[in-house]
Design brief:
By secondary structure, the chain is an alpha+beta fold. It has 15 helices and ten strands.
Amino acid sequence: MAHCNTILSQILKLVPRHEFESLANEHHSGRMFRKASRWSQFVTMGFAQLTGRRSLRDVVDNMSAQQHRLYHLGCAKLSRSNLARINKNKPYAVYEALFGKLLKRCQAQAPGHGFKFKNELYSLDASTIDLCLSLFPWAEFRKTKGAVKLHVAMNHKGNLPEFVTITEGKHHEVNEGRGVDFPKGSIVAIDRGYTDYQWYKQLSDKGIYFVTRLKSNAKVRVTARRRVDRKTGLTSDQTVEFTGYYASKKCPIGMRRIGYRDVETGKHYVFLTNNFKLSANTIAKIYKARWQIELFFKWIKQNLKIKSFLGTSKNAVMTQIWIAMCIYLLLAFLKFQSKTGKSMQEILRLLQTNLFEKRSLYDLINGSAKEKYPIHDSQMAMF
């Protein structure tokens, strides 16, 4: 019977230690803490994410209870004060950089988006994470409310959060949306809250397609009509031009307006796009697929620790969110690599209840008695 390290140890092997230390050195600032290394912080905070610990004391006590199993992780025992200090003072940028490294590896394993077209498909949206203004005064959102905002452009190949930024809650989504460098030829499903006619023109000039919902008060003139099959739910397919004073100046080009009635709910939608190549039915399905990003936000809020925080400083909050995003990518990589039919939530639950068990990680995920995907160090490393 082959020897196996703990499940937690095998998960951490996905992040090569020497690569992590290189990132830590690159993003180092201030004095070194003798016992509180960045690796120990990552292991401890990653453990907190995987197990849903509710406080620094809870995290430290649970790690201490497993102290005899931590030596092989290269993780030093952290006191509550040391963990709080390193979360507050050591730059979160190392985990933002780690996220980028993990993302590249996940992209190489990710399945396709399920559509016949070969264009990259993205969904763009943002989610607000509420904070108590008295405890997080730097995160002012409204007069009596604090918040940070998680902006994500999700690639539908594997439903991976490819472009991620975290801002204070009062930062508008459109400002972040403009800054995303989508590849030429890609298609972006955009929430109606991102309405910006000048941006629509800029995307068109760059050869980037978008699909969004047209505002009900938008003024347009129909210049062409195409036949539609009403049995599919389509109600119209038209070429339009903006006639409103502001919109016509900012976006003086033809757009495509598509009407669609959902057969199940009876609700009518009006879509706006600059893509005249794909069928109207495909355009409607693209916008429907945008729901995946809503499910992504719901999943991370329900299953990872990003709604309550173990520190009140901006750096501590950012550290916790970026580590949560790294853990999400590790789970996604395990799903892709194992080719399991289990959901991300099912994989997470398996890991939570077996973190310190000594058995094959992929054997656990696939539920087979015989190891189907033997793990070698060369295979475990993500970058």
